[in-house]
Amino acid sequence: MQGLKSDPLLFFNARKKKLPRIDLQGNSHICNNHYIMAKRQREEAEAAAELSDTSNKKQKVKKDKKEKKEKKEKIAVEDAGQDAAETLSKEERKALKRAKKEQAKAGAEETQSNGQDDEAAAKAEKKARKEAKKAAKLANGGASEEKTEDSAPVKTTSKAKTATKSEAEAYFADKQIGVEDSQNSSLSPIISFDTLPFDEPTKKAYFSDFKEPSPIQAASWPYLLASRDLIGVAETGSGKTFAFGVPCINRLPKSGKHIQVCIVSPTRELALQIQEQMTKLTTPRGLKATCIYGGVNKDEQRQMIKGSSIIVATPGRLNDFLQEGSIDLSHVNYLVLDEADRMLDTGFEQDIRKIILSTAPSADRQTLMFTATWPPSVRELASEFLRDPVRITIGDNASGELRANMRIVQEVEVMDEFDKQNRMLEVLKQYQSGKNKSDRILVFCLYKKEATRVEETIRRRGFKVAGIHGDLSQDKRTQSLAAFKSGEVPLLVATDVAARGLDIPAVKLVLNVTFPLTVEDYVHRIGRTGRAGQAGRAITFFTQNEKGLAGALINVLKKAEQPVPEELMKFGTTVKKKAHDAYGAFYKDPADMKKATKITFD
Fold this sequence. Notes:
The chain is of the alpha/beta class and 602 residues long. The protein has 3 domains: 29-150; 165-394, 3-Layer(aba) Sandwich (Rossmann fold); 408-569, Rossmann fold (3-Layer(aba) Sandwich). It is 49% helix and 11% strand. It is built from 22 helices and 14 strands. An 8-stranded mixed sheet has the order 1-8-2-7-6-3-5-4, sandwiched between helices. The chain has a 6-stranded parallel sheet with strand order 9-14-13-10-12-11, sandwiched between helices. Strand 13 (507-512), helix 20 and strand 14 (536-542) form a beta-alpha-beta unit. Helix 2 packs across helix 4 (28-83), helix 4 (28-83) runs parallel beside helix 6 (118-150) and helix 10 (240-251) packs across helix 11 (268-282).
């Protein structure tokens, strides 16, 4: 009871709670309980008030720091705006003034309200800061752009400038590029690597060794990147591997579970060469390119196929794997037939058809054919399996007829069969002496036994020489070719197995000890020199045994504007008609036959 009387507030609260009168007079333990409760409530209220004051102080400290930081930003923005005020346009100056007014208004409202409406003032201030920064950015835009150009290269997503229509026409005329497109797309050539859809590190890894795209690459890339089927008619050594390799790398996912790209070539050497070039493209992206060909263990190749996104193969071995179920091409959506005319000439047509039918349907597949000539057999295959293809021809040979490289100097020497060996040694001595001792020379023979004999004859005369023909193991052929490419061995004796597609740089001379069975093979043989825009020379021994091919050879020489020996003209200029394998000289190509006309009677 004493506690209630000593604290009027507690006494009042007790009266307010309408305590029984007996409590106020004599029942002091109940009143004491109410006193303790009231005292505890007061202590809790005081503690809450003290905590609230501490929290307010902390908030105030944070607010003061924030205001100081914002004032610094305002000063920086104002300084930037003043520095660039002279270069601002009317709209920019208005934006800057509006930002300053809103800043001043926000500050005045904050002072006037004396701490009230803090949230509204902060919003207005934030908006003012944004507009001030925007104005300063507009003012300094030109200067910052100039600084970026002068500084180190910065990664950009914008594409390089493409060729205009007039520039594209001039480029096509200068490089002798012909484009036949039924859709009339008229896509501009890619004359710079900067235009390709790759980042800078990838471009550097791919194209650091090249100055600009070759004509076949520049003309074909726009159509291939647009997923069009394509036929490329170009001489060997024109850069066809990168022409079809770069677009397919661009479309492949980094982690594929299936084979999606299949490249078919006629010979083992060419297949290995393509794989070597493709590996340069796949390695930076973590992809795997595998080469399969005959003459080696199948089990090893089956293991190599696993995890491959790209397969480079010869037709025979690829069909073997298809028949035994060791390979699945059903997911292949990018198919390349390289040296298509050569594969059809050597009897691979049925194998090619089986391979094409094993891939994805034509509607889901992009199909490419690269060829040095454009014979009826290639046209028929293209019309059957390609969807509305674009045909690109490099050089002035729009019809795709057989022509020799104009940069190759051709010398034909008519002689007796028994004089060839001595003349061969004289030529080698002439072109393998003095400063020309390390020049690469490719010697062609017709048969494997002849190649072995010629190689031994040259070696006995003290020349460093290697051989490549069908009787050698694949490992030996690979070693010989690698030694010749590196320059370790400057002389290479070969049969026609090495005549097509091989990219052997800097071959100075091609020596045909024995003339091939066809003029087409002759053109492809001498095509090993004069590659990549360089000049070359070819010396050919011609005997009485090959007189039936004299007329066709004379035509090739005349078209290439090369001198024709009088001894060669004596054999005559008649061109022997090409015979069919089954029907002989009486065969007539269906494309050349007249269509039947329907006759109606009245």
